[in-house]
Amino acid sequence: MSADLTWLLIKNNNSFLIKRSGVQFSAEAGNLLNKNSFKYSGLANNKTVGIEAAASGRGVVVSTKKSGVPAYKPSKAINKVTLTKGIRKSARSVAGLTRAGYRADLRKAALARVAAVLASQKPVKAAPKKAGKGIRANKN
């Protein structure tokens, strides 16, 4: 089935669609911005890029959909790679993947998603306790 026909069938009603306050979001795998649009759809497009946090809590998992795989073998249609080297090397890998003719239009969104996922995995630094000023603050 063509990507356009698939989008016409699923754009208004599918199990991943979230409608809130007049805005439509989509929770499907392979949708980088979670927008309900044809460009970012992980269901309708033949080639998709998905980025999520690794199960180990360190790094990101980049998944791409292979074209030419039969519809009755959905598990073989997805290629997953875990990137754990850090933000610069992960961003370079994702940029190379999207620049090499595989959905170059998703490059900016994919890099933003990698940066956001890796930033969320950084440990939060505890704020230092502020020293009080004045005579009463130093009285102990």
Quick summary:
With 140 residues, the chain is of the alpha+beta class. 25% of the residues lie in helices and 18% in strands. A three-stranded antiparallel β-sheet has the order 3-4-5, with helices on one face.
Q: What does this molecule look like?
A:
The structure is a single chain. Helix 2 packs antiparallel against helix 3. It is built from three helices and five strands; from the N terminus they run H-E-E-E-E-E-H-H. It is of the alpha+beta class. The termini are far apart. The strands form two sheets. A three-stranded antiparallel sheet has the order 3-4-5, with helices on one face. A two-stranded antiparallel sheet has the order 1-2.
Features:
140 residues; alpha+beta; two-stranded antiparallel sheet; elongated
Structural class: alpha+beta
Termini separation (Å)?
77 Å
Order of helices and strands: HEEEEEHH
Instruction: Tell me the helix content.
Output: 25-40%
Strand tally is: 5
What general outline do the C-alpha atoms trace? elongated
Strand order of the largest sheet: 3-4-5
Strand portion: 15-25%
**Radius of gyration from CA coordinates:** 21 Å
- What is the tally of helical segments? 3
Give the biggest beta sheet: 3 strands, antiparallel
Q: Overall pLDDT, averaged?
A: 90
Uncertain segments: none
Write the layout of secondary structure elements.
Elements: H1 3-10, E1 17-20, E2 23-26, E3 49-53, E4 60-65, E5 78-83, H2 87-99, H3 107-120
Antiparallel strand pairs: 1-2, 3-4, 4-5
